[in-house]
Design a protein that fits this description.
- It is a single chain.
- By secondary structure, this protein is an alpha+beta fold.
- The protein has one domain.
- About 20% of the residues lie in helices and about 25% in strands.
- It is built from 4 helices and 16 strands.
- The strands form 5 sheets. Strands 8, 10, 11, 12, 13, 14, 15 and 16 form an 8-stranded mixed beta sheet that branches.
- α3 packs across α4.
Amino acid sequence: MPVRVDCEKCGYKYKLKDELAGRKVKCKICQHVFVVPALPPEGVEVSKGGSVMYRYEERDRSFEVAFGEERTIEAVSEHIARHIGPVDNVFHELISDLVHVDVHVVNPTAERPYYTLVTSGMSDRPMTVPPEGGSSPYAELMLSLPPDWPLRQEAFEQHENYWPVEMLKFLARFPHEYETWLGWGHTIPNGDPPAPFAENCGFCCVLLLSPILVPEEFLDLKIGDERTISFYSLVPLYREEMDFKLNKGTEALVERFAKKGVSELLDLNRPNVCKKKGWW
């Protein structure tokens, strides 16, 4: 199976023989030396774009009551206030399983004319990151919503208003529920086969990326000497975008996003960057 890799310096794309996996090679364009990624373990499903694919089944376990870790809640809240703005509201869980997930809300301002939602609690436990994962086992999630999005408790009675918050909470608990991990470039479909998150949108999958609507200093938070929390943004995808990512890779999809200005700011009417134009 060929190994797909980009040069770390110039970005030139290679499709290399599998015997080069784990070895150093020199880019023929810029002469930069880099290490070819190792092949996934035998039996692991990999997409055409080189993404490892995991499938999960419901686990048979009992409910495990969790309480929020005050140290984490305070640290995340202060981190948000320092780099984004003061936290105006927090959606608390009354009863939590595995981890207590709060969703911190920063209201729209003139400088940031949209809501910013950030989780805390996901990082109370480490994720099960494999050795080749290369990322922190501690993470939190975020996304942004338009300034007219109904974020009142009574509005959440309608699923079309609540699903972004529900998605944040579900994914914050997901790696602990299934003893796995989430990181940059991971996609999680809404069911199998994937279905739209709500009747008012065409998105059926979500992609984890680095936030681009926040300062770079926000991306990581160090708590003491034992924990560094990475913050990932959630970008909902259309089915065609999910398929494109699996076939061509995350970088190729991100390039299309950049051309269309797609970010973690949810836009229910944004164009599908991978939809093929038909002939009429």
